[in-house]
Queue: 3 jobs
Job 1
Amino acid sequence: KVELAESLQEKLARAEAALRRERAASEEAQSASEETLRKLEENSRKVLNDCRALQSTVSELEMERDTFANLQMGLEEDRSSLQQRVRMLEEQRAELEDARQELADENHRLTRQHSHALYSTEEQCSA
């Protein structure tokens, strides 16, 4: 009986030692899990803040894009208007060039007519 009691006490002592080791390992694993969880939460907050910053940047870029699109549309309208103005001025220049040529031709004709009249007058005076 004494041997049986001693054997049971040894088994109990071994079981209690194993239980203490298991508890220590469990506590260590729980501490490691909690630390991992804290790191994950911290990383999640950083990622969330990064996402918010990116959303803000995207919103700003979209506003800039819209602003530039509006500016581009205005510039296209201005360009179209200026092209129309250039065409009109080129037409006016062509008309003025035609009128200048007509005046030059008329001037040349009148100069020849005047020279001819002077020549005729000189001949009549000489005769």
Job 2
Amino acid sequence: VMGLYLFTTCPTNDSFDGKKELKRVLRGDKLPEDDPAKPKGWLEKAMAKVSASLEAEAAALAGCKVEITEFLGIVKVASIQHPITKTWYFWLGAVNKWRYIMAKDFPEGEQRPKAD
């Protein structure tokens, strides 16, 4: 029953908006409330939003790569390779939503981070 539920609620590839999701991560939306890097006041949040927009646009112009991998039709993993910061960002797609999982730096010349 759980597999059927996950299968019917797996988000479509078209529902993943890479630029929008990357902006959310870059401006600190996904950080815990007690994280010192999370913008607190109105001015900090506005500056983080502008900075994230500029960085996401720069990444798009530099040729960031978006990949979506499906697992048995029940969940998907989306990844964005940020060519400027040399970072991979990952999201899990399940139950009609995309949820940010993590970011991982990759060495120069490596195409994808190696599993630990």
Job 3
Amino acid sequence: EPQKIHTVVISTQHAEPLKASRKKECAGYTGPDMTAPSMEEMNNLIVEEVVKKTLEEITLKNGEPALSLFGAHTHLHINPSGKFIIGGPQGDAGLTGRKIIIDTYGGWGAHGGG
């Protein structure tokens, strides 16, 4: 039986903090315009709306929610490398060509770079 949740790591693609607007980012969106939150606000929302709500849904063998294992002792690494605005093939192509190598050869293809 787990005793505690030691570390949570989440990296997620997001819009440009405090700059991107929903109407510009989402084609066809007709609702009220909103600006992307700051990194700090977004990371707090990820903890509250994703991490904690997910842990509430998981029931341990003792009947307690997994959230009971989460607390001040839990190390949080939310978007630890900073901004992650460009993702997908555009963000993974790189100058070394590692994306095409991995897509073609999987783990068998070395590209000789770091």
